[in-house]
Amino acid sequence: MSTDAVTPTDGGHLLYVWTPNGYRLEERDGEPPARGARVDLGEAGAYSVQKIGASPYPGDARPCAFLIREP
Q: Range with the lowest mean pLDDT among 8-12, 34-38, 48-52?
């Protein structure tokens, strides 16, 4: 999991995105997408939200949407 570009903050949410090379985290503004929602990540393709959970970062209060690639 790459954490280079993500710094825990109090606003927004995270996307936990599956890739062929492992998972990556993306930081986003606003509320997370709902469970079951479709998320288009451009060239990376379409994903669906499997669950909304806690951020994997200690002390980070942001919600995290866990995504899987749509077939």
A: 8-12
Q: What is the pTM of this model?
A: 0.80
Q: Where are the domains of the chain?
A: 13-69
Structure tokens, 10? 């109090």
Cα separation, 62 vs 22, whole angstroms: 22
Return all residues near 45 (Cβ < 8 A) that are at least 6 apart.
69, 70
Q: Which residues lie below 8 Å from residue 30, measured CB to CB, with a gap of 6+?
A: 12, 13
Helix then strand then coil, in percent of the chain rounded to 5, is 5, 50, 50
